[in-house]
Design brief:
The structure holds two protein chains of two kinds.
Chain A (H helix, E strand, L loop, with lengths): L3 E3 L3 E4 L5 E7 L5 E8 L3 E8 L6 E2 L6 E7 L2 E6 L8 E8 L13 E2 L3 E5 L1
Chain B lengths: L3 E2 L4 E5 L4 E3 L2 E2 L7 E7 L6 E7 L7 E2 L2 E6 L4 E6 L8 E8 L9 E3 L3 E6 L1
Parallel strand pairs in B: 2-12
Antiparallel strand pairs in B: 1-4, 3-9, 5-6, 5-10, 7-8, 8-9, 10-11, 10-12
Classes of the chains: A mainly beta, B mainly beta.
Amino acid sequence: DVKVTQSSRYLVKRTGEKVFLECVQDMDHENMFWYRQDPGLGLRLIYFSYDVKMKEKGDIPEGYSVSREKKERFSLILESASTNQTSMYLCASSFDGWAEGKVNEKLFFGSGTQLSVL
Amino acid sequence: AQKITQTQPGMFVQEKEAVTLDCTYDTSDQSYGLFWYKQPSSGEMIFLIYQGSYDEQNATEGRYSLNFQKARKSANLVISASQLGDSAMYFCAMREDLYNQGGKLIFGQGTELSVKP
């Protein structure tokens, strides 16, 4: 079974703490994504990566950074956590078939990390 | 500007009836793809259906079909013969610049569907 694993299901942190959210996929996917999900706002893209050491900003990158040192791992970093970063964080990965004309590749999602910043 | 708009925060449908979930999108790209995902209360994200901008026929997958109207920039999901298990949040998503590396997938706000027995 294909798998995207997020390191924590629930996380509680204090304002100002540095927070690391880890995501690992075992499908050799090129693309990896971090979204946050909030009621009424849907899923909003924070960052994505289409290759090792490559990263692209999504729609809401402020207050976040990412790291992709290995193909299977994509980390989201909250440099100084704030209460407005309390949210559900979803990691996803996909095969990037653009070079082969396969453009309908679906995302595989992790089970999410519910982060509370107090 | 919102690239994907789902204007129905919540919808109800009677079991066994059909329901249409609306999705409009905004892009100037010629090559793009549209996706629908389902998120039950368990939280997992389930891929339902895909439509490419160059596809001439509307996509279908079992009870799911996509009513693609390119000129109107709409990609509505139609669920036929609703079942209780269809109760979930539904998200429309779009990938632009389809034939280049590293396209990002942008989601809409979601529509919560409730199927009544």
